[in-house]
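Quick review question:
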């Protein structure tokens, strides 16, 4: 629990297609299906979302339901079966401006951020190389990028990792 969250229960939600309900590995998780009717008032109160799809059914595009999550603070895209091109169709307004932390787990390729502005984003985590214009994230303070080699070595088991982990504290206004 972070500072300022003491006594406050933060609702964590998994966002997925309804056909994958039985495949999700965590019993008891709160699930929201992006292909089913939804309550916009409830969506506006959600603060943390994990977008997920199981192996063999790649998620190719961000779901429109994200527009309704106006109180969203943290968004995690994957891990799961996420197409490396998922951000290609991102347009202004699809991701709420309230997002402060964004994790993108693609596994392969390079993420080229499409120029959409997230004015309140403070932390960006990606597991692939990333290219973006700094004007897209004016409040960015922390950028974490893991190289593929580090990820593969960590999955192989214990031992010193010879790959690189990039972790940058971004100067104010960067």
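Suggested answer, residue by residue:
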């Amino acid at each position: 629990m972070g500072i300022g969250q003491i006594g406050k229960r933060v609702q964590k939600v998994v966002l997925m297609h309804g056909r994958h309900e039985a495949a999700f590995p965590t019993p008891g998780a709160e699930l929201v299906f992006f292909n089913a009717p939804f309550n916009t008032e409830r969506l506006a109160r959600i603060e943390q979302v994990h977008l997920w799809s199981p192996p063999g059914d790649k998620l190719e595009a961000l779901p429109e339901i994200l527009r309704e999550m106006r109180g969203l603070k943290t968004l995690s895209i994957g891990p799961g079966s996420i197409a490396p091109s998922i951000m290609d169709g991102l347009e202004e307004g699809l991701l709420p401006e309230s997002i402060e932390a964004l994790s993108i787990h693609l596994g392969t390729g390079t993420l080229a951020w499409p120029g959409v502005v997230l004015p309140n984003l403070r932390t960006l985590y990606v597991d692939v190389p990333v290219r973006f214009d700094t004007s897209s994230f004016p409040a960015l303070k922390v950028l974490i990028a893991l190289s593929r080699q580090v990820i593969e070595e960590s999955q192989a088991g214990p031992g010193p990792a010879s790959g690189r982990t990039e972790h940058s504290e971004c100067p104010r206004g960067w």
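Why it works: The helical segments are 40-45, 148-156. The chain has two helices and ten strands.
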